[in-house]
Amino acid sequence: MNKGKQEEGIVKQSSIFWPTLILVAWTFLVLVQVPIRRFRAAFAGRVTAADFACGESDRVPTDVALPNRLFMNLVEVPVLFYTVSIIGFVTGNVTPALLSLAWLYLGLRLLHSVIYLTYNHVVHRFVVFAASNGVVIAMLMLLGWALAG
């Protein structure tokens, strides 16, 4: 093998962390939107502190509630993605296929977020969300197959 050049089918194991770190960074960027939108709405008189006493009341406008819902969404299923990525790395099973699926998952989650925060079409959002979950399942199956073999 030439120095600096990898054999076909072999990837640097730590490369799995690029899509995971980007998703973590994106999650924090979404989290930052939660207080920004809440404070803007409060200063505009659209909400009060009491509207957030037990989560979000029905009085909280949709544009204020969406970043919080998206943030919760970004800390639910992605935990499985992070887990598969870490297990793949620890066991040395990061393959081109697993890495490609990780990048696909990231792309789908970013697309889901953009839909959520912009025009928020439920069917479009659901299709992308379901596809991203299918990608995580494929990653789990691929990793399980590698670990079993």
Write up this protein.
The protein is an all-alpha fold and 149 residues long. 68% of the residues lie in helices and 0% in strands. The protein is elongated and about 60 Å long. It starts with 16 loop residues before the first helix and ends with a helix. 26% of the residues are buried. The N terminus is likely disordered. Pfam families: MAPEG. It is found in: Membrane. Keywords: Membrane, Transmembrane, Transmembrane helix. InterPro entries: MAPEG-like_dom_sf, Membr-assoc_MAPEG.
Q: What brief labels describe this structure?
A:
149 residues, 68% helix, Four Helix Bundle (Hemerythrin (Met), subunit A), mainly alpha, elongated
Spell out the blueprint of helices and strands:
Elements: H1 17-43, H2 62-74, H3 78-90, H4 96-117, H5 122-148
Q: What is the number of independent domains? A: 1
Computed structural class: mainly alpha
- How is the main sheet built? none
CATH topology: Four Helix Bundle (Hemerythrin (Met), subunit A)
Shape: elongated
In a few lines, what is going on in this structure?
The protein has helices at residues 17-43, 62-74, 78-90, 96-117, 122-148. The protein has 149 residues and is mainly alpha-helical.
